[in-house]
Amino acid sequence: MIKEGLQKIVNSLGYKISKFDKNTSLKKSFKSNALSLFETKTGKYFLPTHAHQDVIAIAIKQDKIFDEPILEIAKKYIKSNTIVLDVGSNFGQMAILMSQFVGNEGYVYAFEADDFVFDILEKNVAENSAKVKAVFGAVHDKSNETLYFPVQDFEKFGTYGSYGIDYVNGKGRPVKTIKIDDIEFEKPVSFMKIDVQGGDLFALKGAVQTIKKYKMPIIFEYEYSFEDDLNLCFQDYVDFVNEIGYKFSKVSMGQNYLILPK
């Protein structure tokens, strides 16, 4: 009866509660505003109904934690009653799970630059009553500039989170930039995770003062597959890490780098 009642409430809002069908992953993702609500072991999540090849959505539906090794690293460093920065939050699973470790007075700042995905993030934060502050914008080295987030065609990637700011052609949906150093945090920052599809160094450069103040562990992603398209160079990251007095501590899943103060 409880499940039937919940189903009626969700249906009245224009959504539906779904069970994961493994056969849907064989279909191609396509753009749609339709959402479905999934009750999983890691929480309740609205997800794009037609994102059939989205590996993040698939993992959530299968009761898994996407990028679980990163969460395990984060758990070692997140302190009670502090702030965690999740830059590139996607549907919010990581932010929601990290918020379980910040204590009664801590919370997670979850940043997302895709307006459609951000709407889903906000819904998931509310659905799970999570200690998460969702922030819309492209985390960068300057504030209040206009960048562009492409409309996913799902030709190159079938996952929403595989698309990032169009730094090359500057086409898509406009989004304002946010600089971490321009945010006044009410509590110490104990951990920072960055995954913004080739723009991680921009986000890091915009957080230099915050990093120097709190000396928090940071894990960022370096997208080797984007090197040619975005003219990325890992040496630039190495140089930056040295400049801020940090050192490389661990590599997770081949392209996620944990850096710590020296």
Question: Which helices and strands appear, and what pairs or packs with what?
Answer:
Layout: H1 2-12, E1 35-40, E2 43-48, H2 55-61, H3 68-77, E3 83-87, H4 93-98, E4 107-112, H5 115-127, E5 132-136, E6 138-139, E7 146-149, E8 173-178, E9 189-194, H6 200-205, H7 208-214, E10 218-221, H8 227-230, H9 234-243, E11 246-252, E12 256-261
Parallel strand pairs: 3-4, 3-9, 4-5, 6-8, 9-10
Antiparallel strand pairs: 1-2, 7-8, 10-12, 11-12
Characterize this entry briefly.
This protein is an alpha/beta fold. 28% of the residues lie in helices and 24% in strands. Residues 1-7 have low confidence and may be disordered.
**Which strand order spans the largest sheet, edge to edge or round the barrel?**
5-4-3-9-10-12-11
Number of strands: 12
Our estimate of the beta-strand percent is 15-25%
Rg measurement, Å: 18 Å
Largest sheet: number of strands, sense, barrel closure: 7 strands, mixed
Model regions low in confidence, pLDDT < 50 over at least 5 residues: 1-7
For the record, give the distance between the C-alpha atoms at the N and C termini, rounded to a whole number: 57 Å
